[in-house]
Amino acid sequence: MSTFRTPRRRARLALAAAITVAAALTGPVSQAAPATSTAPSPGAPGLGDPIFPLDGNGGYEVGRYTLDFDWQAPRTPFEASATIRATATQALSRFDLDFAGNTLHSVTVNGKTATTVRDGDELVITPKAALPRGKAFTVKVTYTADPTRIRHRDDAIEDYGWIPTPDGTVLYPQPDGAKMIFPSNDHPSRRAPITFHITTPAGLSAVANGKLTGRTEQADGRVKWTYDSEQPLATQLAQLAIGRFTFVDGTGPHGLPLRDVVPDDLVAPTEEYRKLTADHIAWLEERLGPYPFDRYGVLVGDTDLGVALETQSLSLVPKADLLGTRVDAERNLVHELVHQWTGDSVGIKTWSDLWLSEGHARFYERQYSQEHGGDDFETTMKTAYTSHDQWRHDYGAPAEPTEPNLFKRMRYDGSALVLFALREKVGEETFGKIERAWVTTYKGKTASTQDYVDLASKVAGEDLDGFLHPWLYGAKTPPMPNHPDWVVAPVQG
């Protein structure tokens, strides 16, 4: 997600759950260990994430989501269902799905009606018969979806959930808003492919992550659209948009299919900057290696929400970002594109690892911008260095966010500064090797802060833990290698 945009900030969200996490913040998300007995037991209601402890669920792994949405009109509730194929990782007497804000109709497990309880954002499901460990099972949830359901955060996220447009909607699921869209295992460490079936009135189009695999005109004039995400994705990266769209096809490096999805009246005004995508991909491939997915495109958001989002293979970019200057537009376009490598393909294990996603996106965004008419990269890093102690005080160290400060300035320029410091420490050539090894080693996987430190140490041929740990977790900003003249400003307040 990019925070360089038309300024708009709103407020919301306080999570009152508090648990003790046994693992360090750099470790993997904790899960309930498999029971030594074969007796069925409840799956954990959350994964114990240090930021959102109740997000995600224990006891099973999702193999695929199939979503059916019968869209009617903007801001109008409509019928929906989610079919979830999963495998039990323990003998389950009951299990949870993350689900919020929709009217529940029915839940079946393996075709039989299950008992359900709503507990905040948890949908607690008790099947008629216990689920054996290692066995596949199918859950189907029918509900009425509410496309007005939105939550708010007092950081760069602003509004999230269903974001209305004049004739439809776009999705903004980050950080944990997918549960407002469909029942799910809503945590970035839990990924699965998604099949979308979206029925729209005549004259409206639907788009989602991945490939269009079917378009069927029905007898009543409505149209059914089917998309396959192709690769597994985290729920926070799901996209589903409905509106009066023009699909603009193109070709990127090595024949990569490009597909922009643009509101009809914005096709011409946004064309100049959208046409730069192929060049952006080529520039990033020189630094990070091959683009990691089967296709890419820009979804132009016809909304006043000034926030871009790296939804997998189809980045959501607000219209305002594409109607201003070229330097500003390219910063946002490149930022969301970088995320396809770091944040989407290489996912994060916990929300405390967010700096790996946003820091990389800001690092390459600013580097690209310097080479294409924007601000000097080193100057922006020096400015960030000056403020770094203040940001540590206000928002936590780069790898130690708190929930209210998750998407504050430290996770962007403050985290890019950590990567800049590493580059200064090991040199540009070794840093480039670290980065390419990072996106290659963990392609299609999730990784933690410690994974990055360990890999960087291996590639550099030296133990970098002692160097990176103070940058990532310390209360004070360390000296910047090669820049003894850089000074951190005193903390105020």
Automatic annotation (TrEMBL):
<dbReference type="InterPro" id="IPR045357">
    <property type="entry name" value="Aminopeptidase_N-like_N"/>
</dbReference>
<dbReference type="InterPro" id="IPR050344">
    <property type="entry name" value="Peptidase_M1_aminopeptidases"/>
</dbReference>
<comment type="similarity">
    <text>Belongs to the peptidase M1 family.</text>
</comment>
<dbReference type="InterPro" id="IPR042097">
    <property type="entry name" value="Aminopeptidase_N-like_N_sf"/>
</dbReference>
<keyword id="KW-0862">Zinc</keyword>
<feature type="domain" description="Peptidase M1 membrane alanine aminopeptidase">
    <location>
        <begin position="279"/>
        <end position="471"/>
    </location>
</feature>
<feature type="region of interest" description="Disordered">
    <location>
        <begin position="32"/>
        <end position="52"/>
    </location>
</feature>
<dbReference type="InterPro" id="IPR014782">
    <property type="entry name" value="Peptidase_M1_dom"/>
</dbReference>
<protein>
    <recommendedName>
        <fullName>Aminopeptidase N</fullName>
        <ecNumber>3.4.11.2</ecNumber>
    </recommendedName>
</protein>
<feature type="domain" description="Aminopeptidase N-like N-terminal">
    <location>
        <begin position="64"/>
        <end position="235"/>
    </location>
</feature>
<dbReference type="Pfam" id="PF01433">
    <property type="entry name" value="Peptidase_M1"/>
</dbReference>
<dbReference type="InterPro" id="IPR027268">
    <property type="entry name" value="Peptidase_M4/M1_CTD_sf"/>
</dbReference>
<dbReference type="Pfam" id="PF17900">
    <property type="entry name" value="Peptidase_M1_N"/>
</dbReference>
<keyword id="KW-0645">Protease</keyword>
<dbReference type="InterPro" id="IPR006311">
    <property type="entry name" value="TAT_signal"/>
</dbReference>
<keyword id="KW-0482">Metalloprotease</keyword>
<dbReference type="InterPro" id="IPR001930">
    <property type="entry name" value="Peptidase_M1"/>
</dbReference>
<keyword id="KW-0378">Hydrolase</keyword>
<feature type="signal peptide">
    <location>
        <begin position="1"/>
        <end position="32"/>
    </location>
</feature>
<keyword id="KW-0479">Metal-binding</keyword>
<keyword id="KW-0732">Signal</keyword>
<feature type="compositionally biased region" description="Low complexity">
    <location>
        <begin position="32"/>
        <end position="41"/>
    </location>
</feature>
